[in-house]
Amino acid sequence: MSGAAALAGCVGGSGSDSGTFVNAYTGNPADLHFNTSAIQNYRWPAGRAVFAPFMKYSFTENEFLLGALDDLEIDGEEVTLTFRDDLAWDDGDEWTTEDLDVQLQLAEKSGSSLWGYLDDYEIVDDKTARLLLSGPTNPQIVRFELTNFLVDTKAETHEQWLDADESEFLRWEWEDPVASGMFSFVSKDRQAFEFEPNPEFYNADNVDIDTFLIDSYGGNTAQHQALMSGTEADAALSLFAPPEIVDQFPDHVVEIQIPAKWGYGIVFNHDDPHFGQREVRQAVAHVIDRESIVENAGPRSKFVTPTPCGIAPRDQEYWLDDWYDDFETYGAGASQTDQAAQLLEDAGYTREGETWEDSDGNTIGGEYYSPAGWTDWTTMSQTVVSQLNEFGFDFSVSTKPTNDWFSQYSNSNFAMGSLYWLPGGSRSSFPYFPLYYQLWEEEIGGGHNYREKADSEQTIPDRDGGEMTLTPLEVTEEIARQSSDEEARPYIQQAAWHNHIELPFLGLVSKYEQSWVTDDEWTVAAEDSPNRQVKWPQFWWVHEGELQPRT
């Protein structure tokens, strides 16, 4: 048994006086690594432990908080990044902009959304760099983008990939990271990641945890039980828990609800003979009763999207403005089977007995993939498939371990399945990010096969019954180039209109994140602290010194 597994098995959260903090999580650490660009087998909790963030966003205060950055100035088309003087790597080397230089080059190679509006950059000195924007850009875009950046690239370890093919870099599994953040990597096995304090971290005085574990509990139910026990786990990073489960948690288990800007949706394979057709995708949208999904899976933390259009639910009215009422809702609280049947008939399908068939006698359906261990997602997937099959589709739910679930989509080995329709986090508040995500979906390598279509001219119905012609990717990229919300809104409206007609994804549900920390032996951020609603408490509170052992 490795050191991580031994610790996970014999020390726990509440009741432990060893200085060990145990995070309950789902996923096999042995299969995961620290190359943040190779998203398929990189998992964010381990990365958040070892890599310092550029900056963060507080939903409590609706403001940005600096991490590795000491200052950020946005002046027209120039963005000046000034990093902390005490930013260093855990091997004792100083961080310099030589590291940033390699990071930005690799971000361009791997198609980072940053380069959608970045023209070039300049290294000013060892701690300062200047991003040169390709045109007028909404400053919020830049700030939100930078919340997604970590100090995760050390020149001497990463420069080997500068001349390699993108595919080679994205397959690289970085197993022994050099840390810039709160913790240094110790080991990993099938049971847990183990970390220890990084003495070179700029806020090292805030870190009073001897051993930090991210422990695999194999699914939501096991994590619930770990929190219920009062002795096994100190925290659960992101864990859905329905009211009947929450009622069983000890009083010292604290829930932190954070706007997720993330949620359950459907991804289509646009090369599939059925779901490559707009009419079939729209029929699916009409059949699904979104409110019943929420009711079945957890109205305590979930809510429907008013119209599937690529924009987070609570942001739609603001951004769509006078276009809002013209959008097709596809029936948020009803299964609109008549509209769905008409669409399929128009596309040449007929209902034979209990199922719809194309002209060759092929039914519409297949395996509908859902992540194993995500109990709320399993419930939502079962609800979706039940509604579709009752209408005449032929699906079966197939749950897969998270890595295999991603692989099905990355390899385009699917027809239609569950996948989050918003990239999540604070940046999803600005429509550019979710709209771009649905067209490109770099997390599955564009495996839904919409990338080429997004870069091609398309003609779709317009609001007045006529037609509009646009290149979706170009319109979406224009959003990021506008210097204000008002200038961005016309492009957002066009991109969202295209999204709700074409449905590259189908957005169904969004939610509040439920994150959990115990406060019997650990301090927690006050409810009015600007750090309270920052993703994620188990990391940012340590960063700020608000999660420490009680004395």
Automatic annotation (TrEMBL):
Any one GO BP annotation for this protein: peptide transport
Transmembrane segments: none
An example molecular function term from Gene Ontology annotations: peptide transmembrane transporter activity
InterPro entries recorded: SBP_5 (IPR039424), SBP_5_dom (IPR000914)
Alphabetical list of Pfam families matching this protein: SBP_bac_5
Solute-binding protein family domain segment(s): 73-437
Protein name stated in the entry: Extracellular solute-binding protein family 5
